[in-house]
Specification:
With 161 residues, the protein is mainly alpha-helical. It has 2 domains: 2-41, no CATH class; 82-159. Helix content is 45%, strand content 7%. The relative contact order is 0.08.
């Protein structure tokens, strides 16, 4: 109900079709844009549904672009950067990415050291084995995220010309 009230009060919100209120067998309410069993269309004040699409003339077939130098031409107003300046930008970008890569690799080494092949030292507040297992799982997740970050940084560095 709160969501529906928020949508009706917000002047910028416009639905793209009819909104349905659906109630399932357990009494749960869901608002959706598709009608199904147990759904009723809502009459929202201030809402005018969009007009139905008009039948229009068939869209002409698009010609495939011919491969060649003509497809690489950019508009005259497109900003140009000279080769030396672009090379300097690429070098700066590479340096920044390499710094980030070194930081992530250092972080990964520390995480793996603390993880101790899946058996990190138990902390004083982990008398309950479930808390220990939860910390081990979160460490494993963090190692996975860091490894994916390293892979993404290496891909990005290899894409620099």
């Amino acid at each position: 109900m709160i969501v529906l009230a928020g949508l009706t009060l917000h002047n910028g919100a416009q639905a793209q079709g009819t909104v349905y209120k659906c109630v399932d067998e357990q009494g749960r309410v869901e608002f959706t844009d598709t009608s199904r069993k147990g759904c009723k269309a809502l009459d929202l004040p201030g809402y005018a549904p969009p007009p139905p699409p008009r039948a229009s003339a068939p869209i002409p077939a698009v010609r495939p672009a011919s491969p060649g130098p003509a497809s690489a031409v950019s508009p005259a107003s497109f900003p140009r950067v000279d080769t030396a300046q672009q090379r300097a930008r690429d070098d700066d970008r590479r340096e920044i990415l390499n710094d980030e890569l070194r930081i992530e690799q250092k972080k990964l080494a520390e995480l793996r050291r603390d993880f101790n092949n899946g058996e990190p030292e138990r902390q004083g507040n982990e008398r309950n084995y479930a808390k220990y297992q939860e910390r081990v799982a979160s460490m494993r997740d963090e190692i996975g995220r860091t490894e994916r970050n390293i892979e993404a940084l290496q891909r990005e560095i290899s894409n620099i010309r």
